[in-house]
Design goal:
Chain lengths: 303, 279
């Protein structure tokens, strides 16, 4: 076995595979299928300051090689998380990371401050890029100064590893990445979902209650890969890549492009054991190419 | 699966989930718009599954589909190690399943979802299984889970009564299977079989009183049955079919609005008490 250990700032991962927020619940939903503690890190559902009901159904539409979602950050709020969910998941033997979302700066700050107190949560991923919330979310993530503002404010109250998740629905993602880095992010993760739309021609209606939604799945991989490559060249902090990864080969492509770790999201819906397979396939690639450590291939793309 | 909401006392299935490659042993076309697949696990015994639960089937080789398709458990014969799935053709995914041949394999995640209530002696006020009168109403592909539910109830000593509705006689499927489990009443819109009209117009609803109603079928049908049950003050369990992605309660795409907020049809459903919904 090759050495799959990788660090994201102070966060130590036993392998570069993480699960994307909103696709793996709180990890326990997949416990019947695999040993979830094998995964490098599990990023739980987006958590907001207050309880959110999320958007009306329908929230999902299948697309060629992908899907659109418009969930809208349904969650019971950070207090409920701290009191009821955290005790259930804190003893899972891997990194449990909380995705933090919000509408206004104070929401992000209050939520991050609360999660900071949870001893067994080593990192948060700041969602400044969810396209499915009416105020905020997208607004912060589409401008460099918006991103810098929220990251700086959270940085003041959050003292562990701060990952900032970037939106691809921007003109220049490297600009946002650099702003997040300057404001104190320990890492950036990209891409969040791409804004898309689906129409039912027979009923002449949109398939999502919100009309537009976020696209994910294999169809977005080339865009995600390109953005990871661009951002990795623009920042010094570690980059976490996600967007359409379905197997070990896809994961390797992101690492070669400059990502230090990757997230698997939509693929979990097709195969609940996919993370296990990807870890194994990354290891097999490293052995086949005679690399002793996964760190040797980060950014190893030959151009 | 653990549920974190302490106030949620829905019947959450404690049954373990599996990912299995099941082999098609028989394939029938009971109707131009349906396929009945009989499946087995050549590598072992089929796991424990409850009435109302479903499987998520992977569609292989399709250019136009991506996600799995959720199909209700229609029947299980543990002695023959056989699982029946009754599939209606509604799009490319279900049509692809209709192209499976005997000997082909289909990858299934199962059993998913919660179950219909079959342990009724716990329910306040009801005495022995002999005294409890149960009505199972099905329409369209909604008859699929009603067959398994009927079988489980019969095995438990109850006498399920079935009420099946369809457009025309040729659209009434698996009648012989239902008749083997209990009394069967039918309605057809064109009066070609049974009584004319919709299920809610069948005379049995006035002739007999029931302690509990279970229902699965097109939404307007379930809503009409729920309204009927409400007028008679009887509990009514319905089974919903929302568009799903993960099937295990992780992604929150398939939610239905209930009195307690949005709930996942795949994990906190598909079975709901009609009064819990915002109908």
């Amino acid at each position: 076995m090759a050495d799959l250990n990788i660090n994201i700032g102070d966060l130590q991962l036993k392998n570069p595979v993480m699960t994307a927020s909103g696709t793996f619940g709180y990890g326990v939903e997949f416990a019947d299928f695999m040993d979830i503690s094998q995964i490098g890190a599990i990023i739980v559902k987006g958590t907001t300051r207050y309880h959110r009901e999320g958007n009306a159904y329908p929230r999902m539409a299948e697309t060629p090689s992908g899907m659109l979602n418009a969930v809208g950050l349904q969650n019971k709020g950070v207090d409920y998380f701290a009191e009821h969910i955290y005790p259930e998941i804190k003893n899972i033997q891997t990194n449990m990371i909380v995705n933090v979302s919000g509408s206004a700066i104070e929401d992000y700050v209050e939520t991050a401050a609360c999660v900071n107190e949870l001893e067994k949560i080593p990192a948060i991923e700041l969602n400044i890029s969810c396209p499915n919330v009416k105020q905020g979310g997208m607004a912060f993530g589409v401008s460099a100064c918006g991103a810098a503002e929220v990251v700086a404010a959270v940085r003041k109250v959050y003292h562990k590893t701060l990952i900032v998740k970037l939106s691809p629905n921007v003109t220049d993602i490297t600009e946002i990445a650099r702003a997040a880095e300057s404001a104190g992010a320990d890492s950036v993760s990209l891409i969040n979902t791409l804004l898309g739309m689906s129409i039912d021609a027979e009923s002449r209606k949109p398939l999502l209650s919100t009309i537009t939604g976020g696209m994910s799945g294999p169809a977005v991989k080339p865009i995600a890969l390109r953005m990871v490559w661009q951002v990795a060249k623009a920042v010094k902090i570690p980059v976490i890549g996600l967007g359409g990864i379905m197997n070990g080969r896809d994961a390797i492509e992101f690492l070669l492009a400059g990502a230090s770790a990757i997230q698997i999201g939509t693929a979990n819906f097709i195969d609940p054991t996919i993370c296990e397979k990807v870890i194994k396939e990354i290891d097999e690639y490293l052995i086949r190419h005679r690399y002793s450590s996964v760190r040797d291939i980060i950014g190893a793309l030959e151009v | 699966m653990r549920i974190f909401a302490p106030e949620n006392d829905n019947k959450i299935s404690g049954m373990k989930k599996y990912i299995l490659d099941l082999k098609v042993t028989e394939k029938l076309n009971p109707h131009s718009n349906y396929v009945l697949l009989k499946l087995t696990d050549p590598d072992g015994a089929l796991p424990e599954m409850g009435p109302g639960q479903f499987a998520e089937l992977r569609i292989d080789g399709s250019k136009t589909t991506f996600l799995r398709r959720p199909i209700s458990i229609n029947k299980i014969d543990y002695a023959r190690n056989e699982l029946w799935l009754l599939i209606q053709f509604v799009g490319d995914g279900t049509r692809a399943l209709g192209n499976l041949q005997v000997g082909d394999y289909v990858n299934c995640v199962l059993p998913l979802g919660n179950t219909f209530t079959t342990d009724l002696l716990d329910v306040k006020g009801l005495k022995s299984t002999e005294d409890i009168s149960l009505l199972l109403v099905g329409g369209g592909v909604g008859i699929a889970p009603m067959l398994y539910l009927g079988a489980v109830l019969k095995d438990a000593g109850y006498k399920p009564v079935f009420l099946l509705g369809a457009r025309s006689a040729s659209d009434l499927l698996e009648l012989d299977e239902f008749m083997a489990l209990g009394e069967v009443f039918t309605t057809t819109e064109d009066a070609s079989y049974g009584e004319k009209g919709f299920v809610t117009q069948h005379s049995i609803l006035e002739k007999r009183s029931f302690d509990r109603v279970y229902c699965c079928g097109p939404k307007p049908m379930m809503q009409a049955v729920a309204r009927f049950a409400a007028t008679k003050n009887i509990p009514c369990e319905v089974s919903l079919e929302n568009k799903m992605a993960c099937g295990v309660g992780a992604c929150l795409c398939c939610v239905e609005d209930t009195q307690e907020g949005h709930k996942c049809v795949c994990s906190e459903g598909p079975v709901f008490l009609s009064t819990d919904l915002k109908w």
